[in-house]
Design brief:
Helix content is 28%, strand content 33%. The protein is of the alpha/beta class and 566 residues long.
Length: 566
């Protein structure tokens, strides 16, 4: 027994003792009147803490949205059936409940559940406990089942959208821009998967419509979505190369075209250099530099004092990209090992296909392997080898780069993919100078809860119609707030002079996506039926209450009769 039960037992015992003492001292001293307080105290104890009885477990059927008429027709009337919101009870034997927790409270003997339809939403899955769960999907889904796309992309980069569709054999996907022009299109493969690629143009709030077409070009499903195209942060880059090559040439051009500041020094021959802006390696220059890109020849030509300045600058937050374009000297290997990168010769092919490019982009590389503790892959090949690694060093980051000819992407007419590749490198390694922004919901949907975090105390939401709404921000939970958008389209978070765009999906437009997500989440929680046939359930309280009421009434009547006979 716990402390509360002990306290209750002591109070009941004292009450019974007082009742017996009073009855014993009275003139109507009778046997029943003496034991009645004991009976009442005992029954009240059982009423408050009923004994546990062995009870047979039962299986229940739960009907969710999407249940088919055939499944309804095959229901067994001997099994308890509960209908969740969105399901119309076909007959009186089906009990409608607001959620699964309510059904489990009303029938605690339920040990196993059989769910029919689209499955259980998240709050119902949390109420399952350790019960067995079987799931039988209802009507077949037809349309878009999964769509993944980035909420924010950078101008000039290539971004992808991928997902899954069902019920459309020989169908295709078409992405339309705001004007109705086709921005990208692709066929659905045999597994129902699709992938679209397109280039982000100028910074804007880009509106798109994703259409799923059948073999006859009829629209089966459609989803309106938005992508924020950002200009990206300007980076102060410094490029040092020990010789002129195509990789340095096109990298310099991309840095300038992206709007970043570039200083470069390229050795052409002994004593002859091509310079752009200030390239002196001083503490002031490196403090203003966000990312230093240097190859093995330029590193080997540095004085020891310059190398020390570079290490100090990295410790203070500057990014450093070590580019390998040829053989490494023993001194360079030792220097880079001191930075956390061991460069080893390896029996590897001299070319590889980029994993980020879908496995169709080939780049040349040296047969080297980079070993670094606590490092992260920056660029990987389709054969699982790593072409670039980075690791933290003080407040900055250092990376080693193996590809030799990514410039072929730019000359081969794939400038967007080239820009995407190097934009990822620069954004990963460059010194962080920007202000922190609020964390927005990845997918916001009308009438569905969305969480926004990292806001100031005066943050506001501006709707597509220009109406403003103040959020209730919890400062104890990371300055987060819950938000239920009421309309679809573009909304803005206004926070300390900063505007962040949020696209809200329409409620009906994502029905298939929600149904598919619910089915997938339910399948992940499947559990074998419980093998135990019985369980210990509290005894029903109503018989105990009637017994207590009967004894209390009889005691009162007995005492009243004794007083009347005096």
């Amino acid at each position: 027994m716990n402390a509360l039960q002990w306290a209750t037992l002591v109070l009941l015992a004292l009450a019974a003792a007082l009742g017996i003492r009073r009855t014993w001292r009275g003139s109507s001293r009778r046997g029943f009147a003496v034991i009645a307080p004991l009976l009442m105290a005992g029954l009240l104890w059982l009423l408050l803490y009923p004994p546990l009885l062995e009870t047979a477990r039962v299986e229940a059927v739960v009907l969710s949205t999407g249940v088919s008429t055939q499944q309804l027709a095959e229901l067994d009337s001997r099994v308890p059936v509960y209908a969740l919101p969105g399901v119309v009870a076909a007959n009186a034997s089906i009990e409608a409940v607001p959620d699964l927790a309510t059904a489990l409270r009303r029938n605690p003997a339920i040990g196993n559940l059989r769910v029919l339809g689209d499955g259980l939403p998240e709050h119902d899955l949390q109420a399952l406990g350790q019960r067995g769960l079987a799931f039988e999907p209802g009507t077949e889904l037809r349309g878009l089942l999964d769509v993944q796309w980035p909420a924010t992309v950078r101008a000039g980069t290539l971004w992808t959208m991928h997902g899954e569709a069902a019920g459309v054999e020989g169908g295709q996907l078409r992405l339309l821009d705001r004007s109705g022009a086709v921005a990208a299109e692709t066929l659905i493969d045999a597994a129902g998967r699709f992938r679209l690629e397109l280039t982000a143009r100028t910074p804007a709030e880009a509106d798109y419509r994703l259409q799923l077409l059948d073999a006859g070009n009829a629209v089966v499903d459609e989803l309106a979505l938005g992508v924020v195209i950002e200009a990206g942060d300007s980076v102060n880059a410094l490029l040092l190369a020990g010789g002129a090559d195509a990789e340095s040439k096109y990298l310099r051009r991309w840095v300038i075209d992206s709007g970043s500041a570039l200083a470069s020094r390229i050795s052409l021959s002994r004593g002859i250099e091509q310079r752009r802006n200030d390239t002196e390696l001083t503490a002031q220059t490196l403090q203003a530099t966000d990312l230093l890109v240097i190859d093995e020849r330029a590193w080997a030509a540095l004085a020891g004092a310059s190398k020390t300045l570079i290490r100090s600058a990295v410790d203070e937050g500057m990014g450093l990209l070590l580019r390998i374009g040829g053989p490494l000297s023993a001194l360079t290997r030792a220097d880079w090992a001191a930075l956390g990168f061991a460069i080893e010769d390896a029996d590897l092919p001299r070319s590889a296909y980029l994993l980020d490019g879908g496995g169709d982009i080939e780049v040349a590389r040296l047969p080297l392997r980079v070993v670094a503790d606590d490092s992260v892959a920056l660029l990987s090949a389709s054969d699982a080898s790593v072409l670039a690694r980075w690791r933290a060093h003080g407040q900055g980051r250092i990376a080693v780069w193996l590809p030799l000819d990514t410039w072929r992407l730019a000359t081969g007419g794939d400038k967007a993919r080239y820009g995407t590749l190097w934009s990822k490198v620069f954004s990963t390694l460059a010194r962080a100078r920007g202000t922190s922004a609020a964390v927005l919901p990845q997918r916001a949907r009308v009438d569905q809860r969305a969480a926004i975090c990292g806001m100031g105390a005066d943050a506001l939401i501006e709707s597509a119609q220009g109406q403003r709404q103040r959020l209730l921000i919890d400062s104890a939970a990371g300055n987060c707030a819950a938000w239920w958008p009421a309309e679809a389209g573009w909304h803005r978070l206004l926070d300390a002079g900063r505007r962040q765009s949020i696209f809200v999906l329409a409620a009906k437009a994502t029905d298939n996506l929600i149904r598919a997500q619910t089915r997938a989440a339910t399948r992940q929680r499947l559990r074998a039926p419980l093998s135990v046939g019985t369980w210990q359930a509290p005894m029903p309280r109503w018989p105990l209450f009637l017994a207590w009421l009967l004894v209390s009434g009889a005691s009162w009547w007995w005492q009243r009769r004794g007083q009347a006979s005096r």
